[in-house]
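Query structure, 238 tokens:
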């Protein structure tokens, strides 16, 4: 009677190699993708999304035009990946940094510093994101918008928490948009030869923003009795 051969057992090193192979392949792919996105960001930053061609992107990334089309069917896909990667990363880093901070004011300061650090470290990507904000279509724009809304929601929750903890009264939406107005355009003016680094800028901007909220609250308190008195006097005239 013929006995079926037993399956050959892999040695421990061979088993580990097989388990590690997908991870190694994924890591290699991610490094290659990061490199392509970095070069594509450079092209979009210099030429603009509309002015850049797939041939420009091919030359910059070092891939053949056919090879680039194999992985990315359009330059819109590249812009989508740049925006998705950038916004996802800044949100991930923010969550990591907020995890061990409980003080409401310090959490707002963490938000500001994380934003400035990322923007100054990736100024070209920030320029592309800001200038090509409406370029994505075909569902890509909606997916990126979802991530951006999540970022806005986090900021709004941080300010609502500060408002409750400090007993302040301010319009949260106005405060959030004012903060973004302060920190979003740093890439347009920051000069490392004369301007401070991200940590120092975050302290200064945090002071300006938070003191502004507190001073506005104080002014409202002082003006409230005066406004009430004026309203009473106006009513008495008629």
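Result returned for the query:
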């Amino acid at each position: 009677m013929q006995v079926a051969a037993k399956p050959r057992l892999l040695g421990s090193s061979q088993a580990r190699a097989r388990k590690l192979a997908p991870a190694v392949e994924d890591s290699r792919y991610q490094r290659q993708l990061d490199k392509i996105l970095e070069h594509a960001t450079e092209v979009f930053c210099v030429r603009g999304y509309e002015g850049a061609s797939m041939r420009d992107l091919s030359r910059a990334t070092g891939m053949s035009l056919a090879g680039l089309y194999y992985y990315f069917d359009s330059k819109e896909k590249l812009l989508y990946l740049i925006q998705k990667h950038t916004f996802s990363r800044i949100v991930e880093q923010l969550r990591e940094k907020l995890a061990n901070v409980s003080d409401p004011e310090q959490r707002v300061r963490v938000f500001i510093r994380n934003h400035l650090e990322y923007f100054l470290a990736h100024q070209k990507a920030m320029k592309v994101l800001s200038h090509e904000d409406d370029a994505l279509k075909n569902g890509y724009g909606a997916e990126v918008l979802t991530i951006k809304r999540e970022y806005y929601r986090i900021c709004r929750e941080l300010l609502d928490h500060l408002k409750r903890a400090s007993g302040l009264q301010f319009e949260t939406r106005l405060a959030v948009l004012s903060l973004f107005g302060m920190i979003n355009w740093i890439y347009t003016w920051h000069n490392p030869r004369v301007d401070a680094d991200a940590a120092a800028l975050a302290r200064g901007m945090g002071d300006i923003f938070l003191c502004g909220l507190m001073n506005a609250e104080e002014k409202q308190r002082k003006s409230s009795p005066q406004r009430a008195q004026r309203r009473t006097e106006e009513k008495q005239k008629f």
